């Protein structure tokens, strides 16, 4: 790409990404940010944390978060010109310095370019948390962080989606919102570290203000999260673009008088009230000491050129008014999939990208990573005659009188594909309800589209029509009638088709749009990126479909062939006369051509629903789960502090020196009176504490929360301990053993030593305590064990690929799956088990569907994790839990830890009564590839392999006396 003034910001974004990626990988970034930021980044992106969660930020979201934080906090950039000076100094001469000299660019300002459907709202949430927590925990305000936030949407739909994200979804019936359903609450394990959850959720709940509440009128606590659309600013300025002061009543009256009747003159009471009250809101936001403004769909903030003069839109004028008194205490983050203006027309049209783009996570990248649907331009057989047919609606004297033949053919083609998808998708998963979106440019056309679709066999309930004006606005009364129905379409079979006139360009965030029919009133493109973007969000997110989706992406985007399925494919039914509009998409690997009536492998390829066999009962097995009653008691076992390792990284005297030489200051606050009585700053990157007793409680909280989270994920109780007993053990460990000699935390301020040097002492304590509590669980006994046996047959249907599965006899399902990549060992082992006379039954455990079949273990880094074995096999005397591993992974450290946890779990299982363990002894086999093929080729059976591959505690731990 040739770099010029129109695209130089894309080069800035790419270079910044390279710099940030290196700083994150080598750890230098963590050393240059605040302890709060370091804690958040470790929590969000640290490998250990990510392995614990099933839900994580994807690469594009991580890239956006890191880039903004790196510029703002590490490089301390204060203007857009600063971005270039610090990242691309060689390109500074190519900048438009006149443009960057404008006040709107002389602030900390960042544009995040993320493809539609890739989760930019989650990036907003993360950046808000980063600013909020740093501001709340700063010893002295630095001006770099704020607890005041303004989130601005371009229109009604995006605004409503933001209210869902921040305030929660609407409760049926009473018109109120359920806060517990907002993004922060539903995904708190991803967004918010445990120690900050109460603080963060309380801040959000108490400080959210919508435009309906009245920004500046609703009383909030120690900050504000204001949600509005840009219309907040619309009445702030007169027709000449001059700001009207809300406090200058004579000026307003003079501007409005002489009053004339009629709304056309803008003199109705609603307009007057809007101008006066709107000023109150803008004045309030301008009066705040600092603020972070987030603009969603920020491509609407652009300059207009009228009569040769460049003018700002009202949205930007409002932001200028808020920013003006604040200087660099005003921070702006703009989000858009298309952050550019266009200059020229036709072949001479040029995209001029916003100059402050710091992240470029584009659509081709998102498609190749499988984060959005793959785009298909439909060239079905019935469209071949369209070039000879008109594409404009029939008109008489300018009024639409009906659809043309070309439009009817396109709609029929779309319905044909939709009906095919409905039949095939439902066979695999009855919850999948594909939808078609028809985009019209003219409100006169949409009623004829609805009539045509009903004439083609659809019911009235199957078609939802939403009309809007040229700006994409819709009458509020009409909007309220369709809002719930529209945003709930993923879960219901009807409506099947949505007919829209511009209204659904942005914010229509549903997953099941699979077919789009763009009907045109002229030969001009109708906002391709926004139209396509409405259908890009993934519909098939379950992991069992990942392999077939990967193969299809390669077929379409790399090999330029037909897809084998329509799983997460977005079909555009386009008139051939307009295929030129898609040339850039096709040339850049953004789209493929669908040249057949159906995909080469059908809509769903070889994905199958596999059910239970008629005779499944004789092959069924159960996974035992030991339940602990609520009144159960631990036996007298205690944490043995003599088994906890000493801290040896630094002598205690050196840690005291760190406190003295690093110049740390501390601030303490008494909770009830809010009286500051001392100064200290906690530089531990795990958490902060204001007293030794609070420190002990937070240690306990962190460790037990980790355990409890895994318990919830597994669905069964895992651990019960007495908090006071554990706190006592922590205290004794710190006082008597941690430093290898007696330690008095109340000797002066010695307890703060535990927080010194980036929290390495705290990390050591947490790691040792986690191991001790996990071991304590294994040594406990209950008054009476209660065992819940979960039969594998409770999962009656599995979804798998026919090409990656095989029909076998000794299992409960009609087919047994194996991995599509590197699954040769498992495929061969399944055939071996099915033929072995000593095997009564076996089952391949599905990690995603047999979620109850888990074993918890402590990883090498001290974090709790979940392990899913590969197989369970039943013989006459034994039940074998089997893990198949490539020979190169047999000695992996975490594999060893899984082995140890599994053996300890099996020890508890074998201690149960015989009926609770299928009347057999349980054993663990670790089957390496070389070992299996060596034994199998020699005619061995499973019992022979078990003798060789059985894992024992003495082997895993190195203790010959441990069994």
Task: Summarize the entry for a quick read.
This protein is an alpha/beta fold and 963 residues long.
Percent of residues in beta strands?
15-25%
- Number-wise, the strands total 34
Q: What is the 3D shape?
A: globular
Rg calculated over all Cα atoms: 32 Å
Helical region count? 31
Question: How many discrete structural domains?
Answer: 4
Give the uncertain stretches in residue-range form: 237-278, 662-687, 708-721
SSE class: alpha/beta
Q: Gap between N and C termini, in Å? A: 65 Å
Roughly how much helix do the residues carry, as a percent range? 25-40%
Major sheet: arrangement of strands: 3-4-2-5-8-1-11
Q: What's the story with the biggest beta sheet? A: 7 strands, parallel
Mean model confidence by pLDDT: 80
Describe it.
The chain has 4 domains: 8-361, no CATH class; 364-603, P-loop containing nucleotide triphosphate hydrolases (Rossmann fold), CATH 3.40.50.300; 641-781, no CATH class; 808-957, Trna Endonuclease, Chain: A, domain 1 (3-Layer(aba) Sandwich). A hairpin with a 6-residue loop joins strand 23 (668-669) and strand 24 (676-678). The strands form 11 sheets. A 7-stranded parallel sheet has the order 3-4-2-5-8-1-11, with helices on both faces. Strands 16-17-15-18-19-12-20 form a 7-stranded parallel sheet, with helices on both faces. It is 37% helix and 17% strand. The longest helix is centred in the middle third of the chain and has 24 residues, at 405-428. 39% of the residues are buried. The radius of gyration is 32 Å and the shape is globular.
